[in-house]
Design goal:
single chain; mainly alpha; two-stranded antiparallel sheet; 12 helices; 72% helix; 5% strand; globular; Cobalamin_biosynth_CobD/CbiB
């Protein structure tokens, strides 16, 4: 039951404390990663792979050592693991950023909504119309529900403390180095591929969960027809299923780094247009899926305890 207890600790800390405003470990990690990039970015995959290993693996090893040292104190283990999971999860941060967009958008404050959406997307937001703002925010909630919450939970349940560290640091490096531009195309290859690998299973579990707790038939059809044509092999299934689940039409043209990109449609073409309501519905869907996952974690934990008790 220690995993289940740790999940409860993490979610309670995240709910009441929100994301740490100062001294967040990932900020320090990002600064370290920036120094590694300056040292090893010579426009080669080899340099990027060495930098990724130096940035991630020592901390994963530390996670294994910490977890092993707590094996004889299960309650302390659960608390410490819960704190680590809290630092790696982004539930309330994601919802907070989403509502910071939805509220001004609903009030007609486009300047405020554009400024808020610029905090969570990499596209140009300076001239976005209300529908485009809502589309960007809804897509981000659905995609980051997988990245910031469910993939982190998956790797924690699989490997514990080192699993959280491995996934969260890898995901952070992908966000920093995983761009397909001249600076990062070669150097960021390892970071991007590792993130794709680590997200492959949890992204599809998230897509299934979105479908189960929304319009299931529409979500599964959108996943089947649209998920594979999206530029990201993991974000595609997640966002397509999520858009179908809440019956909204996302995707379409967007400007990234000054370049117009024509993106495929996500969700039913006849679905609702993106709006403040679709942002709120995406947040509600993420919350429902989180409840489903927590219940599943507790059920599995209880079954394992019962099996262990029966075998004694």
């Amino acid at each position: 039951m220690s995993i289940a207890l740790s999940v409860l600790v993490a979610l309670l800390l995240d709910y009441f404390l929100k994301e740490p405003k100062r001294f967040h470990p990932l900020v320090g990690f990002g600064n370290m990663a920036g120094l590694l990039e300056k040292r090893f970015n010579r426009n080669s995959k080899q340099g990027g792979s060495i930098a990724w290993c130096l940035a991630v693996l020592p901390w994963v090893l530390f996670g294994f050592i910490l977890q092993y040292s707590l094996l004889d104190t299960p309650v302390l283990m659960a608390v410490v693991a819960g704190i680590v999971l809290y630092l790696g999860i982004g539930w309330q941060s994601l919802l907070g950023h989403a509502m910071a967009i939805a509220v001004p958008l609903k009030a007609g404050d486009l300047t405020g909504a554009r400024a808020a959406v610029a905090m969570i997307v990499s596209r140009d937001t300076s001239e976005l119309a209300p529908e485009a703002i809502a589309s960007a925010a809804t897509e981000s909630v659905l995609e980051n529900g997988a990245d910031a919450i469910f993939s982190t939970l998956f790797w924690f349940c699989l490997l514990g403390i080192p699993g959280v560290i491995l996934y969260r640091l890898s995901n952070t490096l992908d966000a920093m180095w995983g761009y397909k531009n001249q600076r990062y195309l070669q150097f960021g290859w390892c970071a991007a591929r590792m993130d794709d690998l680590l997200n492959f299973i949890p992204a599809r579990l998230t897509a299934v969960s979105y479908a189960l707790l929304g319009d299931t038939a529409v979500a599964l059809k959108a996943w089947r027809d649209q998920g594979r044509v999206w530029k990201s092999p993991n974000a595609g299934p997640v966002m397509a299923a999520g858009a179908g689940a809440i019956n909204v039409c996302l995707g379409g043209a967007a400007v990234y780094h000054g370049e117009l990109q024509q993106r495929p449609t996500l969700g039913p073409a006849s679905g609702a247009k993106p709006s403040a309501k679709s942002i709120e519905e995406a947040c509600e869907l993420v919350n429902k899926v989180l409840i489903l996952w927590v219940v599943a974690i507790y059920v599995v934990a209880a079954l394992m305890v019962s099996i262990q008790s029966a075998s004694l």
